[in-house]
Fold this protein.
Amino acid sequence: MQAEKEFILKCIQFDDILQVRHSCFLIGVPGTAKSSVWKNLCDTLNYRKFDTLWDIVDPKAVTSDELYGCMNIKTKEWKDGVLSVIMRDMMKSQGKYKTTNKYKWVILDGDVDPEWIESLNTVMDDNKVLTLVSQERIPLTPEMRLILEVSNLKNATPATVSRGGVLYINELDIGWRPYVDTWLQRFKTKGDEHANNTFTLAVSHYINEGFLNDMKTKETAAPICEMQMITSLTTIIDYLYDDLFINKETVEYIKRLKEEGQTQYEEAVKIIYEGFFVFGMIWSFGGPLVDAKISYNGVLRGMAGRVKFPDGALVYDYFFDVLKGQWALWSERVKPYNPDFEGLFANLVVPSAETSRQKFLIDVHRKTRKGILYVGYAGTGKTTIIKDYFAGVDKETTVCASMSMNSYSDSKSLQTVIESNVDKRMGKIFGPPSGKILMFFMDDLNMPKLDKYGTQSPISLIRQIIDYQLVFDREHLEEKKTLQDMMFLGCLNPKSGSFIIDLRLSRHFTMIALGTPEKEILSTIYGQIFGHHLKQFDNTFNNYAGKVIAATTTLFNGIALSAQFSPTAKKFHYQFNLRDFTKVIQNLLLIEPSPYARNPLGLCRMWVHECNRVYLDRLIMPEDVAKYEEFLGNAMKEFSEFKPEMMTAEPLVFTNFVSVAKGHEAAYLNVKDMDDLRNVLEEKLEQYND
Amino acid sequence: MNPGYAGRTELPENLKALFRSCAMVVPDIVLICENMLMSEGFETARDLSKKFMCLYNLAKSLLSEQVHYDWGLRAVKSVLRQAGKLKRADPNISEEELLMRALRDFNWPKIKVEDRTIFMGLIKDLFPGIDAPTMVDEELREHCAIVAK
């Protein structure tokens, strides 16, 4: 930490307030060092031999009954709550508290809402007594203080606000500067002058005021704060920096450089460090951007002085190759696709530049246990990326678990799932088997229902775990559990559920926005799958994989980008996303070599049929159908060797049961005659009715 | 009762009928303020209390609307107690300066950046010519810095 003037001033002001008032609000937007202020003051008091102890609880991570305790209506049995236990221990100086403690702080770190805070009214004013449902009264002793750490007071009534002192921390009071200074200092203490110099220069060169103001105008996938991006940046650089001295290849490379001569070594190392910094910039500041990715690409290219990007691709497509001292494409690092995959089509993952770079980023964050949050609309591959990572993870060092959130998920159900994945280590410490990390993936993080005051209890619980590694045993609320070696991954779709989650949680994550994959990635993924399938066909089918994918892409882009096909109140089911693309290709995989020998027209007709089923069947307006046919016509130009009428000629129905009914093998075939189809169906209907 | 507050329920009509209702209004804080100042040992309590309330009324109307701003009776009382503390710690300083310090230093931590200049302007207008530095516990500052590192 840095003894920054403004920060110290805040600590002193906080002490002043605590001298006069026994309850105090600590208010500030996320990432403004609220927690650091009280922690530092606590340490200072301890340093001055004013024995200070504290206990923390997020009031919204448990229910109101669990906070204050409740009476069982049937048995009249009293069950203690989290806060009542803490306050009683403080008052009676039992547990970890002693009569010699100068100060005892209760820290309530979480959203304020009238339902729990109104019960504290008598504690916060001059009565200084907590009255429980059991008629027990717990007085506040002179050394006890109530500290409420909140990001806003929008749900607090004037009655509550007037009862406490207020320390308001402005966004600019402390800011991210002290954090970066501390981070830079670490390189100095390590004795790496070059790193310290290069990074110091880079911070002032890249993260200047103009840049930050520019970033504020760019739209991110979900709300974000500067501190969040800065911590992501340092996390990524730290990983790359440490890896430089662990990875055998690079260690030897550095050694060789040193032997070659001091000046060359210095030059090379400086370039490497700057490369690391720029790579961190790509993902920390550029990761959360959606449409602004392109303009950010321009900004970063303009700024990257010594480590110039090659032309051709976006900065996102590059990683820094230490051995060569320059940028290299992610697509060069992609592992070949393993076509012999047996399983559901939905679980099939084709490695692409996207999967390999996201995998790398998850690895980066795994080291410091910082979470990653993927933000993107339906069908952008959020879940797939993480599931793919989990499938390939080293089982010796990592335990994976996941939970899909829905609107009924609450903190209790989340806690149950988390607790089922950890073991008791010793005492009150819980965690995955020692030596392992638990990677906990929460799908659709923003789905839990908002309560009346805009809080999602699972979100509060996760924040409590990330900040303090703390959960309360839900059966015996006086028991505290410490969770260790956990890392959280999350996904959210900003078009569903509560749209966004509390910034106080999301700021702990590195946010990465996922958009609809680019054309190249689409054609790599689906081209490889379909191309592999077509390999068993005769040579008349050469080139058809590419043509089919190109036609599907044209049609898909036409529909997905046209305003006419956006969901409205009348046509709310017009949701076209990548899943539809997938469905077309998935259905086309039903084609088999023998019935279609030397008949590419059959494939084209089948393609038209599948598109009709996936898109056309959903359209309800005649003008939409006309528009669709126009798009289809454009797409069919890919198959220029056949006339469009031949492809769309009726009857255009494909089934696999007509051939079975006629005693042949099941095959997905065009129905030659509609009467045939009718006969088969009527026969089946009769059989069923009998 | 505090009707219309979030998180509180209305008193049912049938129950309400059994009580005689009695409306409360905001008391004249100037008088309270004057008496409290006097009891804390201030001699020029009448003038000071007027200035005090003038500042709070102006602050209420001129500063931006914030949920965490409170210029009511509770806030007044805590500042007065603070002023009394300062008075006893150093009885020889002029009373105006004491009160100004209490008002400024005690409200400063909760003022938003946008409102800082306005608030300082108000203080300067009401207590012209007084320039008292903020009292800081130097020892505490040093210790804070040591611990922070």
Residues 29-148 of chain B form a domain with the Helicase, Ruva Protein; domain 3 fold (CATH 1.10.8.710). The longest helix of chain B spans residues 45-62. Chain B touches chain A through 35 residues (CB under 8 Å). Chain B has one domain: 29-148.
